[in-house]
Each structure stands twice: as structure tokens, then as C-alpha cells.
Amino acid sequence: MDKALIDGLIEIIGKDAVVADETRLMSYESDALAMYHEKADLVILPADTAETAACMKLIASFGVPIVPRGAGTGLTGGARPIEGGVVVATSRMRQVFEVNPTDGFARTGAGLVNVDLTHACEDHGLFYAPDPSSQRACTIGGNVANNSGGPHGFKYGSTTQHILGLVIVLPDGEVLDLSEPRVDPEGVDLVGLFVGSEGTFGIATEVTVKLVPTPEVVETLLAVYTGGEGLSKACDTVSEIIRVGLEPSAIEILDTLTIAAVEDSVFAAGYPRDASAVLLMEVEGTPTEVQGTSGDIMKLAKTFGATELRSAQTDAERAMLWAGRKGAFGAMGRIAPDLYVADAVVPRTKLREMVRTTVAIAEKYQLKLATVFHAGDGNLHPNICYDRRDKEETRRVVAAGAEILEACVAAGGSLTGEHGIGLEKLAEIGLLFSEQDLQAMGRVRRAWDPDLRMNPGKALPLRACVELGDKPKSSVEA
Ligand SMILES: Cc1cc2nc3c(=O)[nH]c(=O)nc-3n(C[C@H](O)[C@H](O)[C@H](O)COP(=O)(O)OP(=O)(O)OC[C@H]3O[C@@H](n4cnc5c(N)ncnc54)[C@H](O)[C@@H]3O)c2cc1C
């Protein structure tokens, strides 16, 4: 990295906010998809929009690529560099600028941790609905970039439905202030376009989010299934709940291997160890609504073969049931040192079939599979537990992941339910999009980032963005 660039950045944000030391750089070389890693040349930690803009302007003058980074909990390799460049991390942008209970919005720094936003507004009887299971670590900016979902996405929708405004620093350092929440925004929806752009358009530094009222009553239910067909029965229960129009706010399924891992870990939730699957659901509303919907769901689960039904009796019990679900990925560290979280999404009616397919694929590649998923959204997470030090096993994991994606697309699903494309799914992008689709997306990307310096080699294959005679900043291709 050019010394003049490093010195210039130190002048703008100070020595402590510029990470050039080899040891500290190691913690930025991958995200939660640890099988891919590459050392960054430099990491910078600007504190706000002004500092980010000044840094981006200087970096632009050196023509160096930029990789935005939140907390690095992404599961597709999105926040790791491919060929060096500067990682711009938002971890110092944790401000809560404003909570407006009257109009129901909050304005925060992009580096604010998801759960801290809800803590900041709970005294007003409001909360921020998108709740990725990583919400104790992931940032609002990362959620915006990946259009993240979460267990409560079934009722509330994903991040894009909750973002009212953004302040974005463009690749050349220009600041695009789209932060004013408007009732009915006019013109091109640039905020909507930015959400889900995976750090390829610019860096969001401030985010205005919609807040929703904390429900009067919340009931958490657990339906337990046993025996060989338990997982299929749980899937069928979900399809029926949706078919008959019942409206729980969350519907999650955990399979037997996941239950064992959770129960052996610090996240132990009291899920029965002999269950082949559990269905974790939440119902919200007025006392009458909750009582009615919960009763109907319990009846239906029983009809579809649940052998035990529970309702959390206290807040502590409710928190424990959710801690098991939200800690499930972490708990899988007990099965193997590494985890590959596939992000399969299919129409909900195909859940049962897709679960069987993923089990068959794991068996074919002789891999250990633990499944936990946002069943209400048709979003399966087949988790392959493996050891990345074993190169041959890692090769099988990658092949199985690709086959799972192929099966999803063939079943009418998509390439990503919520984790994004990143680096992980670039090779499969042609399963869903034609060359013309990709070229059209490439033109949009170039409108934001003409030099292709923002997170190069992620989300979209470079060939889609490059015109004849261009020299992209990164030569990495899908
Ligand atoms: C245990 C665990 C559970 C998870 N559960 C869920 C879940 O339930 N639902 C879900 O959707 N995901 C889940 N994830 C994935 C991940 O947490 C989300 O994708 C999250 O939004 C990433 O946030 P982050 O701050 O860690 O972003 P990072 O991983 O740092 O970055 C993610 C992407 O966003 C870009 N980016 C980050 N910040 C900005 C910014 N300010 N401006 C522009 N681009 C930016 C990066 O370049 C990268 O492409 C889970 C991950 C783990 C490890």
C-alpha cells in the first residue's frame, strides 16, 4: 500500500483508526464464511460521514479498491477483500442520532449493532423488527447492504421494508444525503436500490429506520415432533398454517442434530433431546388475538403429528427458547470446527421436498448436515459441519453447496433467501439470470461506481460490469 495514502489517511482520522499492522489485519481477512480468506492491505475506521467522505476521496485519488465492512458476520465472503485494497469498517459509527416516537423512526450510525437499536427505543414502546439471528453482533449498515431477514421476517418483512433513508458516501467521496424520511418519496427510489447492493454502490454511513410498536402480548410456542418422519411433519404443519391463513409472527424449524448441538451448549433451551424436529413459533397481538391464533396453531400442529406442545409461561422461558434458535449456528461448533451455512430459499410448499433433497445431497457427499430454518419464509439453512483444514472435505462442501443451490432454483426458488450473493454464489448466478440480466445490473452498478472500485468481484460477476477495453481494478472473475 502506498505510504503517501497511509499517511494521508492518518492525517484525516488519526493513527489509532488506521490498521496496518499484520497481526491486527488478520481479524479482517474473512467474514463468517471462514473457508475464504485474504489479507487486507489496510483497514480504516472512520468515525462518521465526514471522515468517511474525506477518506474515500483520498483513496479514489490513488485508484485503490474499497471493501465496506460492518461486523463481519456475513456468510458469503462479502466483507473480505479479494485482492487487497482498503477495508472501510463502520465499527466506530455506533451513534443513535435520534429516536422519534411520534413519527416512528430512528436515525443511527451504520455501525450500530442491530439489537442495540431495539434497546435504544424500547422505552418508547417501539422496536426495530428485522432480527437476524446474528443481531447481537451484526450492524444496521451490514443489514442494509445484505437486505437481511430474520425469524420475524415472516410477519414484518426483510430489511428493505424498514429503511426510510440513508446517507451514502459514494466511491469518489461525494456524500449523497437521502436521510429525510418522507411519507411518499418522489423520484427514483435510490434508497430501495441501495438496499441489498452488498457494498458495491458506496458506503452507508447513516441509516433512518422505521420502528414498529411493541406488541401488547407475545406468546412463544414449541411443537415437538418425534420419529423418522418428524421433520417432514413439521414442514407440513408450516404449509398448513400458511394455507389456512393463520398469522404467527415467526415460524422456525430445528432438526435433531441442531437440537443436540444446542442442548449440549451454553444456549441449551430445553428442547427435547429425543425430538426429530421442533417448530418454534411466536404469536403477537391483543390478548384475544393471541389466544385465538395460538389455540388454532396448537390444534393444527397436533393434527399434523406433534407429540408435545408447549407455551412459554414466563419471559425467561421465552428468552431461553429463542436463545436456542439464535445460538444454533454457534452451538454447531460442538459438531465440527467449521460451518457452511447454505442459504436455500424455495416456495413454502416445496419445503418438505427440499429438506429431503438437501439430506440426500449431504449423504452423497458424505457430509454432516444440521438444518435450522426460517420455515415461514421458505428459507432453509442446511448447515454443513466440516473441518476446513481437510482440503478434500472442503471441496465436497463447496460441491454440495452448489448442488443445493441448483436444486433450489430448479424447485422455483432463488439463489439467496437473505445472505446475499457475495463471493460464495457468484459461480451459480447464471442459474437464475441471463447474460442480458447481468449486463443490465452491471450498467446500474457502473452508474454508482464507474471505476468498479467498490467491493470488486462481489455480488455480480465482473464480466457483467466491464465493457470492451475497460481495465477493472480487480481481475477476479466468477
Ligand atoms: C450466527 C449467524 C446468524 C445469522 N443469522 C442471520 C439471519 O437470521 N438472517 C440474515 O439475513 N442473516 C443472518 N446472518 C448473516 C449476517 O449476520 C447478515 O448478513 C448481516 O446483515 C451482516 O451484517 P454485518 O454488519 O456483519 O456485515 P458484514 O458481514 O461486515 O458485511 C456484509 C456485506 O455488507 C457490506 N457492508 C457492510 N456494511 C456496509 C455499509 N455500511 N455500507 C455498504 N456496505 C456495507 C459488506 O461489504 C458486505 O458485502 C447470520 C450470520 C451469523 C454468523
Major sheet: order of its strands? Answer: 15-12-14-13-18-20-16
Say how many strands there are: 20
The CATH topology of the largest domain comes to Uridine Diphospho-n-acetylenolpyruvylglucosamine Reductase, domain 3
Quick one: overall form? globular
Distance between the termini: 25 Å
Helix count equals 15
Radius of gyration from the CA trace? 22 Å
User: What is the CATH architecture term of the largest domain?
Assistant: 2-Layer Sandwich
Class computed from helices, strands and strand pairing? alpha+beta
Q: Biggest sheet, open or closed, and with what strands and sense?
A: 7 strands, antiparallel
Low-confidence stretches: none
Total count of domains: 4
List keywords for this structure.
globular, Alpha-Beta Plaits, binds flavin-adenine dinucleotide, Uridine Diphospho-n-acetylenolpyruvylglucosamine Reductase, domain 2, 478 residues, Uridine Diphospho-n-acetylenolpyruvylglucosamine Reductase, domain 3, alpha+beta
Question: Can you give a write-up of this model?
Answer:
The chain is built from 15 helices and 20 strands. The chain is of the alpha+beta class and 478 residues long. The chain folds into four domains: 3-89, Uridine Diphospho-n-acetylenolpyruvylglucosamine Reductase, domain 2 (2-Layer Sandwich); 96-213, 2-Layer Sandwich (Uridine Diphospho-n-acetylenolpyruvylglucosamine Reductase, domain 3), CATH 3.30.465.10; 218-330, Alpha-Beta Plaits; 336-417, Alpha-Beta Plaits. The strands form five sheets. A seven-stranded antiparallel sheet has the order 15-12-14-13-18-20-16, with helices on both faces. A five-stranded antiparallel sheet has the order 5-6-10-8-9. Bound molecules: flavin-adenine dinucleotide. Flavin-adenine dinucleotide binds next to strand 3, helix 5, strand 10 and helix 12.
